[in-house]
Amino acid sequence: MEETAKKDDSINPILKAGEEKDIGNDGLKKKLVKEGEGWETPENGDEVEVHYTGVLIDGTKFDSSLDRGTPFKFKLGLGQVIKGWDEGIKTMKKGENATFTTPPELAYGESRSPPTIPPNATLQFDVELISWTSAKDICQDGGVFKKILVEGEKRQNPKDLDEYEVCLEDGTLVSKSHGVEFTVGDGYFCPAFAEAVKTMKKGEQVLLTVKPQYAFGEDGRSAVDSEGAVPPNATLHIALELVSWKSVAHITKDKKILKKILKEGEGYLRPYNGTMVQVKLIGKLEDGMIFVKKGHDEGSFEFKVDEVVLNWMTFVAGQQELAVIPANSTVYYEVELVSFVKEKESWEMNAPEKIEASGKKKEEGNVLFRAGNIERASKRYEKAVRYIEHDYSFNHEEQQQSKLLKVTCNLNNAACQLKLKDYRQAEELCTKVLELESRNVKALYRRAQAYIQLVDLDLAEAVIKKALEIDPGNREFKMGYRVLKEKMREYNKKDAQFYCNIFAKMNLQQANEAKQEQRTPMIIDSKA
User: Fold this and answer.
1) β-bridge pairing 20-23 and 28-34
2) What is the pLDDT of residues 67-108, one digit of tens each?
3) Which domain, by its residues, includes 176?
4) Within-domain flag for 106
5) Known catalytic residue: 214?
6) Catalytic residue at 108?
7) Separation between Cα atoms, residue 474 and residue 52, nearest integer Å
8) Annotated catalytic residue: which of 62, 72, 182, 315?
9) Is there a catalytic annotation at residue 381?
10) pTM of the entire structure?
């Protein structure tokens, strides 16, 4: 560990202004004149920009960018300058000023550099590192190099919108655009675009060097409209600016609804199920034809979140559509959320308010259940129970109201779960009801239905028998019991057939083994 630290320190020594230390083991010395900014230093392949003055040991000046008034640029570590520069400048920070004493082996050696540098000369360079730009191999295979010309903002993960200019290696302009929009997943122009924008920040400007495999490959591309042709196996130079992007996301499990944010909203609060919202909306077909417009001229369009389908049907029935929507059409809605009224949380309510809110959610659930919106109904019943879940502070009358609501909502939710085929959840909801009312026959019957579907037939039979003891004349329970008995007979037949098949296979295997033994000759020991 100590040896590694010493080695690293010799390559990039830590210096204070006025100090001088060796860099490496080849005689290169660095004296710090002025400290730089930050902690980053350039890497091999980066394009660095420096001002310098070179003198011989006796002080004779032989070259200076300051005299020319123009900084000197080169790519670090690629042999474009003397080795002493490649080794020394990569130890510098932005804005740093240092003097490098460079032995002949890391300068011009025996060859000298007429007319001012003699053979085997030790040189001194006063160097200021102005800046550098990094060229990154963004695909890690040499296919696309990115050089940042202008830094962007901190936020990352862009989606669309770019301005670009594409040239061949000889400078021939191929394509140019201001503000083109595309989705990263779909790509645009050539494969390098999508790879590059994923690494960029808003406002960032870069120069891409794109090899054929990320451009147009062996085939090239013919001229298209105003865009020039790209020859086969051509390397492209692309000046690219990421102007902005819009977040795009699937918002449903089946990925049938795609949301693109055109304008960010305020704050962090969002409406949730049951919240009353006001919106402006425009509905369009793929060709841009508007088929509905609401909330722009005639007042806002209001509805409760998660009831939008029912409200939308009522709304459409009450107005003439602006265009006919063909069957199987993809439609586009541009929606602005104007405002919403956030419902009180349960912890913000007193006991009567909680009971009232729970009752409203229960009624909403009933309406949705009758309309066939089973998942939404289930969520309403769950919300209703959450309002009154903790009723320890309720008085006696309020606790009785709370108990009735819990029983009703959990029973109704159990019916939802049976329809949604979540039988384990249905059984758990019935258990909650029975903890409050042990002789609730509806809870017993729905629990039995869940057990039947879970193939827990013995438990189902025990539950139905208990329900019939409580209400022996209930025709629904009697019919359920007959169904259960029929299922038990079916499963018994299947079990019997299953075991018969196993025993038949075992008997066949034993018979085959016996035949094999009969065919095998007995070996008698001749010495016996």
Assistant:
1) antiparallel
2) 999 999 998 887 899 999 999 999 999 999 999 999 999 999
3) 137-242
4) yes
5) no
6) yes
7) 101
8) 62
9) no
10) 0.47
